Amino acid sequence: MGAWWSGPVATFLNTDPDRIGERLAHEAGRRRFSSEPQQLRAWATQLDILRTTLTALPQTAGWQILFEFPIPRLGGRIDTVLISPDATFVLEFKVGASHFDAAALAQTEGYALDLQDFHAGSRHHPIIPILIATEAAQPAQTSPLLLGSGVTPVLKCNATHLTALLSDLAHQTQYSIAPMHPYEWEQAPYNPVPSIVEAARLIYSTHSVADIHTARADATNLTLTSDRITELLENARRQRRKTIIFVSGIPGAGKTLCGLKAAFGTAEQDNSATFLTGNPTLVHVLREALTRDAVAQGQKRAAVEQRMESTIQSLPKFRDYYVGRTAECPPERIMVIDEAQRSWNADQAIRKSAQRPVRLTQSEPAHLLDIMHRHDGFAAIICLIGQGQEIHDGEGGMACWGDALASRAEWQIHASPDVVSSTPGLTTLPPSLPVQKDPCLHLTVPMRSLRDIATPTWVNAVLNGNASLARSIAENTSLPFRLTRSLPELRNALRERSRLTYRCGLIASSQAKRLRAEGLGAELAHMDSNAVAQWFLNRWVPDKDVRASDALETVATQFAIQGLELDFVGLCWDGDFIRTGYPQRWQSRRFSGTTWQTVKSVEKALWSLNTYRVLLTRARYETIIWVPEGNPDDPTRCPDTLNGIADFLLACGVEPLAHSETLHVVENCLLDV
């Protein structure tokens, strides 16, 4: 990966601009990008402006200039990057533009933030994004505060004033403590960590996870697991066998990415795979995101939607269709099941389908195994297992799959040792099954959390009630959690952090019924495909779309957010999961009528605990937890009860959200490559 043209500023000034323009046009053609006359004229104008500007600057000795520097995660290229020993300048040109529109500002800042997050050469010096609308009136603006690193607000400039602006910024940033070597900047590691939606787009277009990295060198686990799945599938295909592969991992480690790669990588070859999920939110969001991409590239929406419906399917609809048609064999020979531990046990399947046109007679795993067994020869099921994420009554866990496989000896079973136990349990396969154990099928490195790899361990300690262990973890890491007791403070902090590019949103348990008294009664309808797609994909800034997550009006529950993520999360904690007793422990409650009722069922209490595990692991950067202060006149919002939750979280190492917290949040979130 590299710029289409790069070199020292001195070389740029001594090179015929026509030769540089020809090189840019050649690179565009080689990559099958458009190089229309309009684009060629824009490059020519841009080169002229930069030649005039840099000739007049006295400080550019040793500077480096790069044209069309790719940002794969955002699907774009930075027009120009200028590297001095003391700063990185991100220049986005809008040739002929007479105003600075919001979309262009968001684009410019997005490029700068991406460099800060994922480019090792951009970690320790200021990144200054500048939007150049060549024909606009020069606006009055405040000079940015340059504090050593991080992304400044986007500066606006026209063509005439670019020399003066760059000269002033070069003077302000001069003489940093540890100067960069500009010529080395382009060679520094660039390891983008996409969100699940961005990753789906990337995998769908390339059929690979090779470009999905983390900022840590030990995250080769994702590629190893993906390659091992491919190898097992090829072996089973060659041997004409039935095989089932269980891929497990900690929250946010990339299980869904491996599944999408398996589905997309084979679906384009011979239409032999489908990605199934019982999570309607994931279906809606991934389908709509990929459809929007394809339509933007000129494809017809109806044809794209039809293709998406076969590649990403609702598990219940797929199941019911083939249970009701016992003689019909699905065209797909590979079935990828997301969050397979959430499949219904037999009692739940029979009860829930009793009044439906298609009645189930056994557990979901048993039905799915029988459906795929209709294939003559090769068939495969890839089960993606989110350990500790069963969040609803009737979810059978791994034990349910074990029961179904015990009477179906034709299936060859592959799983990581983590999901096989010497004693029977809900979350593991029974020891009696002939499982071929494979450590490569367990993902251990968190991909979602960009701030610290200790987040899942800390969450486990908190939910286990082990405050001393949680605090010990917090003291040795940069814990990506903050606590506030004020809803306005929560919203303000999220808006400040999300800026123009990052996504934020409010989430809560589906049992958080008394948040209504705090003004949070609007819950995202996770079965409404349009509402879900709008919440996750539309934007409050710059579009002012009140349906978007970052409008901070609608709250998503665990059913809507599981399997997806946001950059910054506002977790609204209610009285459905509290600290009580002596010694204190977590207690699950459900609101019924006018009072809270204690959950006495061990199984239902586990669903509640796992709900908060899901909610606590949805953020890529930071989670701000809001615990209401309560009302002494309302027994359903007892201040002492809510204070107990807040006090325990503080004891676990969560820092209070400062009232006037200076927002250099993201740069403090990131780890060096």
Automatic annotation (TrEMBL):
Gene3D superfamilies: P-loop containing nucleotide triphosphate hydrolases (3.40.50.300). It comes from the Bacteria. InterPro entries: P-loop_NTPase, SLFN_3-like_DNA/RNA_helicase. Residues 242-628 form the Schlafen group 3-like DNA/RNA helicase domain. This is Schlafen group 3-like DNA/RNA helicase domain-containing protein.
